[in-house]
Every structure is written in C-alpha cells, then in structure tokens.
Design brief:
Blueprint: E1 3-13, E2 22-38, E3 42-49, H1 63-74, E4 80-86, H2 97-112, H3 119-134, H4 142-147, E5 150-156, E6 159-164, E7 171-177, H5 183-188, H6 196-215, H7 218-224, H8 231-234, H9 241-250, E8 255-258, E9 265-269, H10 272-288, E10 293-299, E11 306-307
Parallel strand pairs: 3-4
Antiparallel strand pairs: 1-2, 1-11, 2-4, 2-5, 5-6, 7-9, 7-10, 8-9
Helix pairs in contact: 1-2, 1-3, 2-3, 6-7, 9-10
This protein binds L-homoserine.
L-homoserine is lined by residues 13-14, 19-20, 94, 96, 138, 140-141, 183, 186-187, 260-261.
C-alpha cells in the first residue's frame, strides 16, 4: 500500500465525573489524515489545512508526526512517510482535536505497513502525540477516538483500557462556543488535592455512570452525571456555563457538563429528538450572550477511525 486516507472522530472526555478516565467518540466533527509512502526514510509534514497556520510543522512538535515516529521507533522501522493533515474540527475546543490527528496518523501508518498491531496496541503511540500537544499523556480522548464507543481508562500504569457497551439510543448534543481554551491551561488551574468527601461523591458517580451505561438505566446515568471536582473550577472559564447547563437539563437532557477541558459543553439525551431540542436550547443560550457556536448532534460512534481511501 502506498497511500491511505483516514478519518478519526472528535471525542468527549471526562463525561462529567470521569476526569482523565472516561470518554466517548462521536461521528462528527473529526480530522482527516492522508499518509503517503516515500522512497527515502524520514517523516515529513507536507501540508496542514484548516488550522489557520497555528499547528507546528516541525515533526518533533506535531501530534500526528510524533505519534507516527513513536510507532515506527517501536517497530524499529525506518520508512519514509509524508503527512497531509486536514483539520476539520476546531483547535482548543475540548473535542479532542489533537487526539483525532494523532489517532488518524497512527491508525493510518499501521494500515500502510500491513496492520501489524491492533487498535488497542496503537494506543501508547497516540498518547505520545497527546503528550506533545498538552504536556500530559492522558488517554480519555485518544482511546475512544481509536477504539470507538465509551471507554474507561481503569489504570494508566500499567495501561488498562476497557470499552463499555453504551445504550444505542444515547445521543450527544455538543455546542462549541467560539472561544479557545488550551488544555494545558485548563489543567494548570485544577486543585492538586481533594477533600475526601468530594472524592467519595465522585467515586459514587463514576461507578453509577458506568453501571447505568451497562444496565441501560437512564435514571442512574442521569443521577450520576455530576462532577464535584473539576467542573466547579473550569466552568469559570466558560461564559454562560450555568445558564447553558440549566437550559439543557430543562430541555430534557439526562446530564450536561464540560467536554474535555472545554469550552465545548456536551449533553447526553435518550433520543435524537431530545438531543436536537437540547442542542437548540443550549445554542439559544449562547446566542443571548452574543457568543456564536458550532453545534453537533451525534449518537455514540462505536467504530472509531474510518478508512476513507
Ligand atoms: N481529561 C483531559 C482534561 C481531557 O480534562 O484535561 C482534555 O481534553
């Protein structure tokens, strides 16, 4: 194979209570990466479109090339790879933009050389890309982008990742207000220690959310979508967060929270109709504050990356 084009999806990390350990993939938006074999060894970024010139072209700094390099080094391969990256999602949006590029890249190079590794085995290399982008190799965007569906990171050391069956009629409504928050900054403002009572509340919610997903118990999912640790700090970075969240819940969402490190806000609903109504109400709230936003409505994406050509 000389060339391959891959789509990798956006993801909602944390899913309220599961900071750094829970995430799910959606169908849109996402990034497209084309990889071409070249005869001489080495990785080159030939083109990046849709980033407004903001992403690094240096192969040691770009999340896609860093992921590919980690993969090739691991397999001790000295292939020549040209990268063409098409950003089809906003940067700094809390939708796993850097993860989508890293996943598309590492999934693509694995296809190019005959698929020696499984998607799960590709995860550490995609995490290297995430490390380059935000200084920490969290996996709650890369894992769902790579594996599809809802994913739990049970442990980072050793890496232990579990895909969770989510109900088929669960729909996400995502609104992305056009302000940018760098994940690095949103991580730096978090408290470094917790009250035990908050940790107990959060453990209960994480366990409840996962049990709710597995048992398709929507009331339990709804009761568990509460974050008493990260949201109270980060929501201050998002103008109108409280109003948008109330609007989503009043419109029938099961739960609502910050997508990843923000500023996108996501809700989960039990049907596509409710998800549409919820998205409209969330958007209307931002409009009242004169904040323009993108809106995405999607079921949980069970597949992860797609081979386009
Ligand atoms: N879990 C990470 C964070 C996700 O919230 O910082 C970043 O998209």
């Amino acid at each position: 194979m000389r060339s391959v084009k891959i789509f990798a999806p956006a993801t909602v990390a944390n899913v309220t209570c599961g900071f750094d350990i829970l995430g799910f993939a959606v169908h849109q938006p996402g990034d497209e990466v084309t990889l071409k074999r070249k005869d001489s060894p080495g990785i080159i970024i030939q083109e990046i479109k849709g980033d407004g010139g903001l992403l690094p072209r240096d192969i040691n700094k770009n999340t896609a090339s860093v992921a590919i390099k980690a993969y090739l080094d691991h397999l001790k391969l000295d292939c020549g790879i040209e990268i063409f990256l098409e950003k089809k999602m906003p940067l700094g949006s809390g939708l796993g933009s850097s993860a989508a590029s890293a996943v598309a890249a590492v999934f693509g190079v694995n296809e190019l050389i005959g698929r020696p590794l499984s998607p799960m085995e590709l995860l550490p290399f995609a995490m290297q890309g995430e490390f380059e982008a935000c200084g920490e190799a969290h996996a709650d965007n890369v894992a769902p982008a790579l594996l599809g569906g809802f994913v739990l990171i049970r442990s980072y050391n050793p890496l232990d990742v579990v895909k969770i069956d989510a109900p088929k009629d669960l729909f996400a409504s995502i609104v992305h207000p056009q302000i940018e928050i760098a994940t690095k900054d949103a991580r730096s403002i978090l408290k470094k220690s917790l009250l035990l009572k908050d940790a107990v509340t959060q453990w209960g919610n994480v366990a409840g959310l996962i049990t709710g997903l597995i048992k398709e118990d929507y009331d339990l999912i709804s009761r568990s979508m509460e974050d008493v640790i990260v949201e109270p700090v980060r929501s201050m970075l998002i103008p109108g967060f409280d109003q948008v969240k109330s609007a989503a819940l009043n419109a029938g969402a099961l739960g609502c929270g910050i997508s990843g490190s923000g500023p996108s806000i996501f809700s989960l609903s039990r049907s596509s109709e409710t998800a549409t109504k919820v998205a409209n109400e969330m958007e209307a709230c931002f409009k009242q504050l004169d904040i323009i936003c993108d809106v995405f409505i999607s079921p949980v994406n069970q597949e992860g990356p797609l081979i386009i050509s």
